[in-house]
From TrEMBL:
Subunit field text: Heterotetramer of two alpha and two beta chains arranged as a dimer of alpha/beta heterodimers.
Catalysis performed (reactions): S-adenosyl-L-methionine + H(+) = S-adenosyl 3-(methylsulfanyl)propylamine + CO2
Molecular function (Gene Ontology), one example: adenosylmethionine decarboxylase activity
Gene: speD
Name of the featured protein: S-adenosylmethionine decarboxylase proenzyme
Top-level taxonomy: Bacteria, Pseudomonadati, Pseudomonadota, Gammaproteobacteria, Cellvibrionales
Keywords: Autocatalytic cleavage, Decarboxylase, Lyase, Polyamine biosynthesis, Pyruvate, S-adenosyl-L-methionine, Schiff base, Spermidine biosynthesis, Zymogen
Length: 151
């Protein structure tokens, strides 16, 4: 296990020297919080009892609102509409990672992944998705990706 004692204390999202390569040329966007360095936060968001899960314009707007509110950088959005049930699979590719969705409108259920690195704040996406799809129940799981204390 690699010790983190030699790493500088940084604010969230500040670029630093990659502790694995120790090269000044390899700046990354790892985050240092509460003594833990990691690549980014990956939220798994399940919406139950949700509505409008077959509406691509609403889904695209929700993604765009998430990108803006979370402070991320949009590179590309792609949505696919399934027939006959109207489910949507989609992804927003971000400079900071991604937002993805798979919906089952016939079950009023949507599965979102929101993974963001650096200064982005993926936790802000939860309220945006609640407002857009009005679920009766929301479950959120969090995983700190690339934790350096596990190296």
């Amino acid at each position: 296990m690699k010790s983190l004692d030699h790493m500088p204390s940084l604010e969230a999202g500040a670029a630093t020297t990659n502790p694995i390569t120790s090269s000044d040329e390899n700046l990354d966007h790892f985050i240092m919080r509460d003594g833990v360095a990691y690549a980014g936060t990956h939220l798994i968001i399940d919406l139950w009892g949700a509505s409008h899960l077959d509406e691509i314009p609403r889904m695209e707007k929700a993604f765009l609102d998430c990108v803006k509110e979370c402070g991320a950088t949009l590179l590309h959005i792609h949505m696919h509409h399934f027939t006959p049930n109207g489910g949507i699979s989609g992804v927003a590719v971000l400079a900071e990672s991604h937002i993805s969705v798979h919906t089952w409108p016939e079950r009023d259920y949507a599965a979102f992944d929101v993974f963001m690195c650096g200064d982005a704040k993926p936790e802000l996406a939860v309220d945006i998705l609640k407002k857009a799809f009005n679920p009766s129940r929301v479950e959120v799981g969090e995983n700190l990706r690339g934790r350096m204390d596990d190296v």
